[in-house]
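hey all, quick one before standup. I had two proteins in the batch that finished overnight and I want to keep them in one place so we stop losing track of which output belongs to which input. First protein below, input sequence then structure tokens straight from the run.
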Amino acid sequence: MPRVLDVQYHLQNLNVDVTVPSTPIFEAITTDISRFESAVTRTEMMKEAAMESSAVKSFPTIRSGSYADIGTRPSMDDEHIRIDDLSSYLGSFFKWPSAFYAVFDGHGGPDAATYIKRNAMRLFFEDAELPQTSDIDAVFLEALVDSHRKAFLVADIALADERSVSSACGTTALTALVIGRHLLVANAGDCRAVLCRKGVAVDMSQDHRPSYLPERKRVEELGGYIEDEYLNGYLSVTRALGDWDLKLPLGAASPLIAEPDVRQLLLTEEDEFLIIGCDGIWDVISSQEAVSFVRRGLRRHDDPDLCARELVREASRLHATDNLTAVIICFSSPSPVESCPPQRRRFRCCGLSEEARNRLRSLLEGN
């Protein structure tokens, strides 16, 4: 399988310039998964193992495309990652076929988004603490979810210590990992992931905005406030990495958090593609509209790069006012467009008058 990587993202040239936080921080944010293990019976584990073995063998043939545009903004603060063959970059880290995608929407400048993109492999994979197993079983999946949550929190802490990133700078983040036939999406902020299942949009993330009632309630319970749909009258999201001038000291509960929502599912033959994009897209296009638009494009030309470009241009046409970034991840080839059968030429029958018939008869008889 060919390797695809965003042209600006050279893994071989990553510069790891932030020291990973010390062990106590890891211990503070590590969750106990023993409760999950105890809830899984031996029979369920056997069924899970059999299912996962089959899932690995049927890893989808992934193709992806992406496109980004500055839009009407004076600077480009979006970043994204696109890797169709993750195992070829990480060596033996994963024993199964895998792929990784991410979008980061910076605010207060591009520095926070750029830093997270540059260090993404270390944060999400190289420093991950995962059990050694030959199968993608329930225990491994729970550990993987926990590892992704931890990566968001560690990235947030790293931004607090990174001198090149202002405390007034931050970024939303959404990652999508495909391992075997498992899809895992983690999100903090208002980027969005939408799955196309037989033409129907399935949201794989929740927009963390002050208008979302559970987020508003959480913010207000922690002493924050919402003013004109902005957190503390300043930020349009309630979850983000960085923005340390809005967060309480480390260890204190803060209205603005970096904790991601994580969702996972087992991909089936009905799942056609995934769209991940920054909020500039979703400000003007609904999830279902985006799925229908991309599906039509894939059926026309089967080119995910072109589909991403078309989706961004459609958002621009609809007067989007933000940076625009879209990534399209295809899990299957589109169904061919049903072509209309050639229509037979129809002739309209005309009635002839008696005089016309007589003239025609005389002509044919040579008179």
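OK second protein, same deal, sequence then tokens:
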Amino acid sequence: MFSSLSVYTLLALSVCAANAFPQYQSLAGLTRDELDAVVPTLQYSPPQPPPGPLADDSTKLVNDAAHPHMPLKPGDIRGPCPALNTLASHGYLPRNGIVTPTQIMNAVQEGFNLENAFARFLVFSTFLVNGNPITNLMSIGGATPLTGPNPPKPATVGGLNSHNNCEGDTSMTRDDFFFGNNHDFDEARFQNFVNFSNKFGAGKYNLTVAAELRHFLHQDSLMRNPQFSLVSPRLFTAYGESVFPINIFIDGRQKDGQLDLTVARGFFQLMQFPKDFHRHDGAISNEGFDTVYNKYPIQPGGNTKGVNTYKADPTSATLFQPCLRYTDFVNKNIKALYPNPTGLLRKSINTNLQFLFEATAGDNCTQVFPYGKDN
């Protein structure tokens, strides 16, 4: 269903190049009046409403003839998320790695059976920080001109490689940002995954292994990374990262919660579904994260004065404060990137914030409006 996206993107960008402003030029430094005049010319693409839950969330073959694995072409982008990398390499997402939030929603539900509200919160929180609200495009890896002209700074539009949102310290297969490469597969870190699976899981990755490995990764960053940080929202995605291989990388016909290491490498390194792979049977989110956390509970925080100087951050939401995570994300993270958006930029951000809030319905959170309400 996405076969025409690359063509569409190129057409849109070629039209954009004909505008008076260079195609990929940053808009930082323009006055408010100049920005209001320019933004409407930037191939504005209004946010699309996210899809609802799948009508049929039973297990099904997803490594099928319509979604063959293909090697990367020059210019194709991949990043720190093995799940999205795999979906792109099989064509559930655009193979070039430039996506819209709705495309991600469709792909993670169809390919992995990710639960709708959980997927929505992940997708729109990630997009609001790392995507381009004007063009409605985001890179699943590093920053690229293919997402269109950047909104004014301090917005970054850095893609999923941006530090401390989806990506962050203590990754299982990517190194900490401080050491220079936070997005490419790291064999040494994957060997930790293998060794802990052999030691605690009889050669399989499971919840017992996940708890031990998560603790090790926390201690490793604590002792090596002087800028180590593990606060919301990265705290949330770090523990989600520990359980998602169990929840979505195991064939849906398999019910024992034991991930084969060859299958794991296929996802983490090769970005490839196993042969005859079926998605999870029933929608799933981050089941098991509390088991991983409760074995070695920690408070959000980070190193403050070099390595091994971890200090708890009482202002950060914990794993069990979803409403504080939501309000802090909006009032702190988004406001920091977009202090005073106007016009179409403000309208787009508000729409995406509405989609994000709707994902918290089950938590009974109070909605916040950092830029006021649109009529």
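Flagging for whoever picks this up: The domain at 48-363 is CATH 1.10.489.10 (Chloroperoxidase). The chain has twelve helices and seven strands.
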